[in-house]
């Protein structure tokens, strides 16, 4: 459980995106308006951003609540960026690896966050680890469900999947293993934002050709905010936003033919007279 946000657009001070809006991510750490699970996001926070001329993002993460960090004000005031991904955390399990467990996670040009929880973790996902390279498992930043979900996404990205495909396939795989999982995933490469709405709230604000913000909930009362339907993949840039429905694995299972229905639908052999 957490609140997260991603931004792409003209360079802005971090504070203008994360702190100054009346219902900013900063305020959502103690007063979220639309959070369905948990009430206070005080178990760490993180900010990732991209500097001009450098495709690899920088990160600032801490284990405590964002409102208690005395250095964030200066950082947010002077650092400007064209792309940001940030999160405030409400831990599923307390005490998991301090700031290493706080989003955003990072690899290469990517920043990643998970808003949600995987019931039964780690047992519910233990069989999925077999499909990961051993080095990826040994390199997990933290011992929590979000870090493992990121490892599953990252393996697909490194295998050549496009970002939307990597998120969608990971969500469906994890949801099949843990049907009650909440899997709002957020991914940025500094130019685009890819996200899933799966079990919690997700909204976007788009000014085509200028900026796009994707967030767990609106940070102000601008009427242009649009809610993303549950079970949806979002792909966004500064110019447009594309929404694609995701099929719930349980729906596919429920609609699958049973052995009896298969037999009933099998063609009946013809009883032509023999010659």
From TrEMBL:
Alphabetically ordered keywords of this record: Glutamine amidotransferase, Hydrolase
Region spans: Disordered: 246-275
Residue ranges constituting the Glutamine amidotransferase type-2 domain according to the UniProt record: 2-275
Pathway: Amino-acid biosynthesis; ergothioneine biosynthesis
Recorded catalytic activity of this chain's protein: gamma-L-glutamyl-hercynylcysteine S-oxide + H2O = S-(hercyn-2-yl)-L-cysteine S-oxide + L-glutamate
Domain of life: Bacteria
Gene3D superfamilies associated with the record: Glutamine Phosphoribosylpyrophosphate, subunit 1, domain 1 (3.60.20.10)
Family matches, as InterPro entries: EgtC, EgtC-like, EgtC_Actinobacteria, Gamma-glu_amide_hydrolase, GATase_2_dom, Ntn_hydrolases_N
SUPFAM superfamilies (UniProt xref): N-terminal nucleophile aminohydrolases (Ntn hydrolases)
Enzyme Commission number(s): 3.5.1.118
Function: Catalyzes the hydrolysis of the gamma-glutamyl amide bond of hercynyl-gamma-L-glutamyl-L-cysteine sulfoxide to produce hercynylcysteine sulfoxide, a step in the biosynthesis pathway of ergothioneine.
HAMAP family, alphabetized: EgtC
NCBIfam families documented for this protein: ergothioneine biosynthesis protein EgtC
Protein name per its UniProtKB record: Gamma-glutamyl-hercynylcysteine sulfoxide hydrolase
Species assigned in the record: Streptomyces cellulosae
UniProt lineage: Bacteria, Bacillati, Actinomycetota, Actinomycetes, Kitasatosporales
């Amino acid at each position: 459980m957490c609140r997260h946000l991603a931004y792409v657009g003209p360079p802005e001070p971090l504070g203008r995106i994360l702190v100054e809006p009346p219902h900013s991510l900063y305020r959502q750490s103690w007063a979220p308006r639309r959070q369905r699970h948990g009430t206070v996001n005080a178990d760490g926070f993180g900010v990732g951003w991209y500097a001009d001329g450098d495709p690899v993002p920088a990160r600032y993460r801490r284990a405590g609540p964002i409102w208690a960090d005395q250095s964030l004000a200066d950082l947010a005031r002077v650092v400007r960026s064209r792309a940001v991904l940030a999160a405030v955390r409400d831990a599923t399990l307390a005490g998991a690896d301090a700031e290493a467990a706080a989003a955003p996670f990072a690899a290469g040009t990517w920043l990643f966050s998970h808003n949600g929880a995987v019931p039964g973790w780690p047992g519910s996902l233990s069989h999925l680890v077999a499909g990961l390279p051993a080095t990826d498992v040994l390199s997990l930043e933290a011992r929590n469900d979000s870090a493992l979900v990121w490892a599953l996404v990252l393996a697909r990205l490194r295998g050549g999947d496009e970002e939307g495909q990597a998120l969608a396939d990971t969500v469906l795989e994890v949801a099949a293993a843990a049907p009650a999982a909440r899997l709002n995933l957020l991914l940025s490469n500094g130019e685009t934002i890819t996200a899933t709405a799966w079990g919690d709230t997700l909204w976007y604000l788009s000014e085509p050709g200028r900026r796009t913000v994707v967030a767990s909930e609106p940070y102000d009362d601008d009427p242009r905010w649009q809610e993303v339907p549950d079970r949806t993949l979002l792909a966004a840039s500064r110019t447009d936003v594309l929404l694609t429905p995701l099929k719930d694995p349980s729906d596919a299972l429920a609609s699958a033919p049973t052995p009896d229905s298969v037999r009933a639908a099998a063609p009946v052999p013809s009883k032509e007279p023999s010659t």
